[in-house]
Amino acid sequence: MNIEINSKSYKIEKAVATLLEALIYIKENTEPTLGFDYGCKSGVCGACSVRVNGKEKLACSYNPQDGDRVEPLKYYPQKRDLIVDKASQKELLKRVKASLLNYNKEVLNTQDEVKTQVQSDCILCSSCYSACPVIEVNPLFAGPFALTKTYKYTIDKREGAVKEHIDVIQTDGVWDCTLCGECTLACPQGIDPKTDIINLRNISAQNGYTDPNFGNMSFGGGFGFDTNGGF
Ligand code: SF4
Ligand code: SF4
Asked: Into how many domains does the chain fold?
C-alpha cells in the first residue's frame, strides 16, 4: 500500500489496521524524522487528528487505503510534517469564557448529567475546527468546538451566568456560522456543534439579541424572493 504525506509517497510493506500504525511504520523504516502527534492510540486524547483526502480523521481510528493523501489539520501553524501548534485552542476557550463563571450550588441529577454528556465528550481534537469553512474567511470566528462548549455551560443548571456566556459569542461567534454542518460530520465523538449553535441562537434571542446579518439580507437574494414577481 502507498500513502501520500504532504505530497510525498511512502510504501507500507506490512498490513496495518490504522493510519497511526502506518505512520509509525514509515518512521521506523523509511523516514526517521517524520513528525506526527499521537497519545492514547485509542481515540480518547484527540492528539492524532489529521486530514485524509481532505477530511478530518483520528489517525488511530482510521483504516488507511491505498492512495490516501494525508495532511495536517487546517488553520493551525504547521510545526513539522503532520504536527500543528494547537496552542491557540486555550486562548480561544478563554476568549469565549468556556468554564463555569458563577457557580450555583446545585446538585446535578442523572438527567442533568445526560443533558450535557455529549458536549462533555469533546476531546479537543480540533477536527471540527479544521473542517469549518468560515475560519478560512474569518480567522477570528470562534468556531464549532468553542461554541459547543459554550452551549454546554448555558444548559448546565450550576451556571448562574448564562447571559455572560451569550454576550461574548455575539461577535465572531454564533451568527457567523453558515450552518453547513461540516463540523458535525467531522466530529469523531458524535458531537453536533451545528445543532448546538442553532440552540445558542435561540438562547441569544431569548436574551434580546438578533441576527446582525438580518438587516443586510436582500429580499432579492437571501430568502429566494423574486422582487420583480407577483408584487
Ligand atoms: S456548521 Fe457552522 S461551525 Fe460548523 S462547520 Fe459549518 S460554519 Fe463552521
Ligand atoms: S467537537 Fe468533536 S471534532 Fe470538535 S474538537 Fe470536540 S471532539 Fe473534536
From this structure: 2
Which residues sit opposite 4 in a β-bridge?
Answer: 9, 69
Q: What does the pLDDT read at residue 227? A: 33
- The closest ligand to the CA of 192 turns out to be 2
Q: Is residue 140 part of a domain?
A: yes
Q: Specify the CATH number for the domain of residue 67.
A: 3.10.20.30
The answer to whether residue 186 is domain-embedded is yes
Expressed in angstroms and rounded, the spacing between residue 135 Cα and the centre of ligand 1 is 9
Considering the domain architecture, whether residues 49 and 126 belong to the same structural domain is answered as no
Residue nearest to atom 6 of ligand 2 (CA): 122
Please write the tens of the pLDDT for every residue from 107-117.
889 998 898 99
181 pLDDT tier (thresholds 50, 70, 90): very high
Q: Are 21 and 60 within one domain?
A: yes
- The span from the CA of 37 to the CA of 88, in Å, is 17
What pLDDT digit, counting tens, does each position of 67-98 carry?
999 999 999 999 999 999 999 999 999 999 99
For the Cβ of 148 lying below 6 angstroms from any atom of ligand 2, the answer is yes
- Nearest Cα to 177, choosing from 137, 206, 205, 209? 137
The torsion of the CA quartet 155, 158, 163, 168, rounded to 10 degrees, works out to: -80
Of ligand 1's atoms, which has the minimum distance to the CA of residue 147? Answer: 3
Q: Is residue 218 part of a domain?
A: no
Cβ(143) – ligand 2 distance below 6 Å: no
pLDDT in tens, 39-48: 999 999 999 9
* Enclosing domain of residue 71: 16-84
What residue's CA is closest to ligand 1, atom 5? 132
Q: Ligand 1 pocket, 140 CB below 6 A?
A: no
- Nearest to 3, CA basis, from 13, 11, 38, 25: 11
Task: Decide if 216 is inside a domain.
Answer: no
